Amino acid sequence: MPEPLERAVFGIHATHAVQLADRHGVFAFLIAHGASRTGNIAAATGTDEETLRRLLIALQAFGVLTGDDRDGYRVPPESAPYLDPDSPRYTGAFLQHLVTSTSGRLPQLADYVARGKARVDADLPAPFDAMYADEGSTATFLRAMWQLSFEVSDELVALAGLGAARHLVDVGGANGPFSVSALLRTPALRATVFDLPHVAPHLARSRDAYGLGERLRFAPGDFFRDELPKGDQLAFGYVLSDWDDDTCATLLRKARRACAPGGRVLVMDRLFDDDGHRPLATAVMNLSMHVETRGRHRTAGEYLGLLRDAGFTDCEVRRSSREKHLVIGHSAPDGG
Ligand SMILES: C[S@@+](CC[C@H](N)C(=O)[O-])C[C@H]1O[C@@H](n2cnc3c(N)ncnc32)[C@H](O)[C@@H]1O
């Protein structure tokens, strides 16, 4: 079997193996202790040695680990930041979301292929009703959002250039990864996260953890029913990719009404390359968007088109070194 096909066929094992090793502290142990043999890892993590042996062999075969049981298994240095629970790039909550939520939703694709998404979804709860069905799934989802968004936000804040900004309205801002980063880097700024009421206690925890007090406020609301709070920077981080083009147009028109003259909209999302096929993570998450939301991933050109159609001008793309990029639109200084 050609290797790309082999990796795709066995991808289901890979995701579960990585998540299981993460959940049981195998990567954390290897990062802390260096090359280690199965018996030592099993004893330290309290895991069954025979099951762990197979797990480690599979992880080594996928290239997630290097080494072997004679000289010890190791986490390659380039992967360590993503597997180390103490690293800002740690991806454990996202892995947990993939295993506990996404994998349960993927079988829906079979129904979509046979009957079409609209007909199948008509009998299902709305995307965020399912995501926020209980406190456990809400917490896992929001932790995953934080891990996907907080670290890259430093770079996005710098790319956005918020020095002259006064009031950031973070639409669907969740537990605040972008707002917190923006406030930490921009002393004169205040921010309002506008999101569903379920999110309130999670944002409060971020506000308290970073000592942001009154500078970070929460406005509970539903962006389908309510107008957006007014500000000079309206941010949409990983929000427009949850919705179809017509819904994005409605949300961006609301942002236009809420945006102060001379202000800006900041769209931050994964981007497809112009060919609409790469990078791999965007292509795969585009499938996730199909089963978990009503959205899709877009090229930079498609976002620019949505912003211009909503009345924003001087629209431009600023790319980060990571998977989340920035598309900016300006509101005319005369409000026109
Ligand atoms: C994919 S998350 C993005 C979180 C964060 N902005 C980020 O960049 O990581 C989408 C956010 O949109 C919020 N959201 C979904 N439907 C909403 C609605 N009808 N009104 C307000 N917020 C909503 C969700 O609660 C969630 O926080």
TrEMBL record:
The domain of life is Bacteria
- Source organism (scientific name): Streptomyces kasugaensis
Any one GO biological process: methylation
Does S-adenosyl-L-methionine count among this protein's keywords?
yes
The residues covered by the O-methyltransferase C-terminal domain are 126-312
Query: Where does the sequence pass through the membrane?
Result: none
CDD domains, A to Z: AdoMet_MTases (cd02440)
GO MF terms listed in the record are:
O-methyltransferase activity
Question: Keywords for this entry?
Answer: Methyltransferase, S-adenosyl-L-methionine, Transferase
Q: From the Swiss-Prot or TrEMBL record, give the protein name.
A: Hydroxyneurosporene methyltransferase
Q: What is the lineage of its organism?
A: Bacteria, Bacillati, Actinomycetota, Actinomycetes, Kitasatosporales
Q: Does the keyword Transferase apply?
A: yes
